[in-house]
Structures are given as structure tokens and as C-alpha cells.
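Course assignment 3, question 2. Fill in each field.
Student: A.L.
Task: Predict the tertiary structure for the chain below.
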Amino acid sequence: MPDAMLLWAALASYALVALMAVPAMGLPWRSRTRRAQAVAALALAAALALHTLSLGLRWSTLGHGPFTTMHEILSSNLWSLALVFALAWWAVRELRGALLLVMPVLATLAVWLLMADARPGHLPPTYATPLLYLHTLVGKLYLGLLLVATALGLVPALRRTAWGAARCAGLPDDRRFDELAHRFAAYALVFDTLMLIVGAVWAQDAWGRYWAWDPLETWAFASWLALAAALHARATLRPAPAVFGLWLAGVFVLAFLTFFGVPFISTAPHKGAV
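Answer field:
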């Protein structure tokens, strides 16, 4: 299928971004680093363009968006995470030296996507609502902003290693990365809150209840609590930037497992199939 060919081309471009991750790390005054960052930016733009075409063509062919199967969800989330990161990359100069800290997440989704069944799925009746698009939008913004916050927050932690200290020597100090990580994490909390609210309204429309503590709802709320606790701790306990970055990394791992684990191992009807 043409959409599959476009997806393969997009994945090849993502792979080129990954190859540039180490040489693009830190030391911005080196010409080699600047070239690596430029190549990574172009490859990321090409990957997003090809991936957008692939998703759009599949949507047009199937008559519904990428919401039903693991293949579709992995593909759309790889696209949205890469898009949010790309926009932040072009807006925040400090993020350009932290590409390496984002690539493990994008690579995990890409490899997982290659192994997932690409056959079309069934669109449940409860998905026939505008709330689906709003819930999906704010959820993707939440996870993308949290990924950016985590990448920025991990730079101070990386500096505590011998390799990281050498690679990050030309980047701004830890306080700047801590400030940026805090800002993006706060934005992520806003969209996480909206995701829970819209999800509750959708649940009332679909199943006649706002909240039932099913596994996905429970873990989504746990992720919200973890992020809120991280932001509260930074404001009150004043942890070192490296500690705050590691806390954000733990929150992201919890959110990642909530997004891509709980809905597919639970037998609860939250997926909308009823």
C-alpha cells in the first residue's frame, strides 16, 4: 500500500535523525556539531512530512483516523511526539543539544511499530464523537510536552557522568535547563488535566458514568499525581536540577506505560469497544 511505503520512508528518515543524535550533542561552537544538528533538523522535517502523508493516506483509505489498532496508535504517537519535539527544537535553542535524550523513546516506538500488525481495525461506536479528537489532541500534547521537559531535565543528570560532562560543556548551566524543564512540565500538567476532564465527559457520553476507576483511568490519574507532585516538590523542596530531571524521567516512564501498556493488557472496556 502507498501509505506503508511512505511510512517506511519516514522511518528511514527517523533513523537518520538517530544517527545524528550523538554528534549533535552539546559543544555548539564546533562546526561538526552544527552540521550534525542541521542534518538532524532536515531529516526530522522530512520524516514528519512523509509520516503525515502516510497517516493522511491511511485515514482516507480506511475512513477513520489512527485510533483503533496498536499499529495505528504507535504510528500516530510517534508522529505527534516527533512533531512536538521538532517544534520545541526550533523554538528553544537549548534543546538542540539534547536530541540524544529523546531518541530512545522515538526509537522504541519505531521498532515497536515495525513489529505491530498493520491490518485495519474496527472503529467502535463510542468513537463516533468529537470528544475523541479533543481527547486525543490534548493527550498527545501532554505526552509530547512531558517528553521535551524530560529531555531538558536530564541534561544536568547527564553532566554528572564523565562523558556527559565533556559533551555538555558548551551548553548553558544546569539552572537554565531546570527552568526550561519546569516550564514545559507545567504546560504538560495543563494538558494532562484537560485530557482527564475530556475523558471523563466522554465516558459519561459513552457509558453513562464520568469515572469508574478502571485500570486506564486509575493509572492516568496516578500519572497526573506524579507530575503534580514533581512540580510541587520543585517549588517547595528545591531539589537539585539533576534530581528534578530524574523525577521527570520517572513520571514520563509512568505516563508511557499508561499510554502504551495498560489499554492493551487490561480486559476493562475503557478502549471503547462496548
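Instructor remarks: The chain has a mean pLDDT of 91. The CA atoms of residues 29 and 159 lie 18 Å apart.
Grade: pending
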